[in-house]
Design brief:
Four copies of one chain form a homotetramer.
Chain A (H helix, E strand, L loop, with lengths): L7 E6 L6 H16 L3 E4 L5 H11 L4 E5 L13 E4 L6 H8 L2 E5 L3 H12 L3 E5 L9 E2 L3 H15 L2
Parallel strand pairs in A: 1-2, 1-5, 2-3, 3-4, 5-6, 6-7
Helix pairs in contact in A: 1-2, 1-5, 3-4
């Protein structure tokens, strides 16, 4: 029997046109997620997704990439487990549903769709340099704060 | 051969807890869509979806409902063509992709996910009493203005 | 209020490498579906799907095409209402769920997946020159017989 | 950087009404998959899925369950990583696409849909007491033979 004590944290954010500052933050988010013993789930592609995955792997963590296309080779090279959907943006919903909590790092309209689903499904979501002024979303300044906030929120949920 | 001159306009908005004012607006939106000779597509359930469908039927129009569940009986009674997905909220993407343009009437997080996909896919979207301050979204005050704006935007796209 | 008396009949079958005999049968199936006053739903692309849609339009019927890709222009020119999913083969399930009954004409593995879902969802399915020896599937030789069988089965379901 | 040397093997089969012989075979299949160092992916529910997952865990392996519903608690207790889709049977496609190769153990129409997608996507599939006489599918008698055949086929693909 599986204990399933490992939490799954989703990282959502843009796949391209990222500033180096944003990529640094995403990598730190991934690093801290792994440090906390959680599994990272993301969209499996480039930009924020790749940086976060790299951070998690540098810290010895596990990464899941839920891909929109039909070829696992499209996963970035820091993904341990590629989930191949072939369903385009519908895969965004799978990331949100599979994550115990979410961290949004930057992001455009695709990320906004994920935030919206996350809030609709009543998941804890912490935002870093992302869509602002959304009710029920918590904003933090640093990657470390974002991850520790998410971990605390999950601990409260499972009390 | 089909001429496919009929445009398909999506109406997105909340399925419950609607004020009577919002329902009135939604019904007017549906009425004007049908008056313009366009087909209405929506999520097929209650609230804004039902009111807009009722408006379209009162005006002699056609309605498509893209349902999240697996039973066409869940469609409201103003839906001509129920599309049964069994895919939950993933059906939101199908509404957005199938619509030539969209009108958001009220709405919560589910609607925000649809707006986000609409903007991601570069669809024209007009908002009525809905999520504010979104770039590339056009806001109007009345149902008639919302529909006439959408029709003009589509005419420009197809010039 | 919609009476929704029009049944929706799904036509499933291969999109390419069709013999002229198979295409003729598919076109006849579409023609008879429209003659019976039913709406045709299919995958919206070429081959059997296009031939059946053409038959339905020649007979003055209505056609819905549930597309795998993200562009409605991929619909064949006999589709009145393109439903754009962007979800690849997951759209097969939507065709099956939305149809009141199904007719399989020829077909390969994609069609077999649709037959399997149809049988799983306990839909009436009639086969013409298609996957053989499947329990609960009814086989017919001509398009006219296939359509009249489906219509009778639906009448029984709704008694 | 991930080496991703671990193959992912899908196990498909019915979720209920399994004979004890079938469950025994499914458990052996899971056991041998883990012995070969591969990850098991399945639909995450009961019957064949649960038995195979149990076998993999007994052998120290890793298991992924791609769930149709919207609650990870529906996963059987031998699933390490629940992927929560909320997309009903559309999740069958994700299992097939994510697996490097598949083993069908028993199964009804849902399993037939997965076999059909597997063959459509040109995946290697080995069958044990399942749908018969399908071209391009390989049949074996024992769990050990089924797994060793799948492993050999994958080795050939990656030569």
């Amino acid at each position: 029997m599986v204990e399933r004590e490992q939490k799954i944290i989703g990282v959502i954010g843009q796949g391209r046109d990222c500033s180096s500052e944003l990529l640094k933050k995403a990598e730190e988010v991934g690093w801290h997620i792994a440090q906390q013993g959680a599994i990272l789930i993301c969209g499996g592609l480039g930009g924020v997704m790749e940086a976060a995955s790299r951070g998690a792997k540098k810290s010895g963590g596990k990464t899941i990439g839920v891909l929109p296309g039909d070829d696992k080779k499209t996963a970035n090279r820091y993904i341990d487990i590629p989930i191949v959907t072939g369903m385009g943006e519908a895969r965004n919903i799978i990331i949100v549903r599979s994550a115990d909590a979410l961290i949004a790092v930057g992001g455009r309209f695709g990320t906004l769709s994920e935030i919206a689903f996350g809030l609709a499904f009543e998941k804890s979501i912490v935002g870093l340099q992302t869509w602002e002024n959304l009710e029920n979303m918590i904003y933090r300044e640093t990657a470390e704060e974002a991850v520790s906030t998410v971990i605390k929120m999950l601990a409260l949920e499972y009390l």
